[in-house]
Amino acid sequence: MFQRSLPRGWGMEHDIFICQLDNAGFSIRSIVYKIRLYFPEFQAEPLKEEQLDCRMRVLDERYNDYWSRDVSEWSWAKTFLSEQRARGPRGYR
């Protein structure tokens, strides 16, 4: 599968972040918005929905625990987890 290049500085933390958002039911468009919100270094970088969709497909084909990992170690996790609790169960969007 062809993988469109991601912005410079993209790493495992960003992969986990997009997988967690996907697991929480966010749309690709919302994930692009959240990346720019939580990681200001990517605000000026070209980042398209197609890039993230392709990246999630690549990650899905590899064995990893990015969709189920405990994310409390990451700096963005506290805000992300509190947003999740405020949104309620999946389906109440």
Characteristics of this structure?
single chain, 93 residues, mainly alpha, 4 helices, 0% strand
Structure in words:
- With 93 residues, the protein is mainly alpha-helical.
- The protein contains four helices and no strands.
- The radius of gyration is 13 Å and the shape is globular.
Silhouette = globular
Q: What level of helicity do the residues show?
A: 40-55%
The N- and C-terminal alpha carbons lie at a distance of 32 Å
Order of helices and strands: HHHH
Low-confidence stretches: none
Count helical runs: 4
Indicate the radius of gyration in whole angstroms: 13 Å
Largest sheet: none
Based on secondary structure, the structural category is mainly alpha
Instruction: Please count the beta strands (DSSP E, at least 2 residues each).
Output: 0
Strand content: under 5%
The averaged pLDDT comes out at 80
In short:
The chain is an all-alpha fold. Helix content is 51%, strand content 0%. The longest helix has 13 residues, at 49-61.
Topology (elements, then pairings):
Blueprint (H helix, E strand, L loop, with lengths): L11 H12 L4 H11 L10 H13 L15 H11 L6
Helix pairs in contact: 2-3
